[in-house]
Amino acid sequence: MTATMEKVVLPPIPAKRYFTIGEVSELCGVKPHVLRYWEQEFTQLRPVKRRGNRRYYQHHEVLLIRRIRELLYEQGFTINGARNRLDSHGGGAHGAPAAAGDQVEGVAPPAPTTVEVDVEQLRKELLHVIDLLNR
């Protein structure tokens, strides 16, 4: 790692269910074309795609993108190195931090895992998605 790499302070992530690629770009300090490229390189990154192939990212994906950005831009990992680091730490956003103080500033706690989400909440989310698709 070189002395020129600095930690960038990113804006807090709003309490929303879905984020457009433009919003994620601003929240993570990464251009939209880079996000699309990272989707090909990191299998953990799978935004929901709706009409017109528009991408909608969830909170845990925004956290993952911030982690990928940190590994690549601040810690100097290659794409392969970052991919291996995320794989070895359970997917990155929910995995154990790589080092002490490795938390990205301005980030809310990670979203609950699938096991922790209750059925009623899942039902509400599915109804919301159906409503969005019917618009």
UniProtKB/TrEMBL annotation:
* GO terms for MF: DNA binding; DNA-binding transcription factor activity
Residue span(s) of domain HTH merR-type: 18-88
Keyword annotations from UniProtKB, A to Z? DNA-binding
Known SMART domains for this protein? HTH_MERR (SM00422)
Q: What highest taxon heads this organism's lineage?
A: Bacteria
State what protein this is by name. Transcriptional regulator, MerR family
Entry keyword annotation includes Metal-binding: no
Instruction: Return the InterPro entries for the record.
Output: DNA-bd_dom_put_sf, MerR-type_HTH_dom, MerR_fam
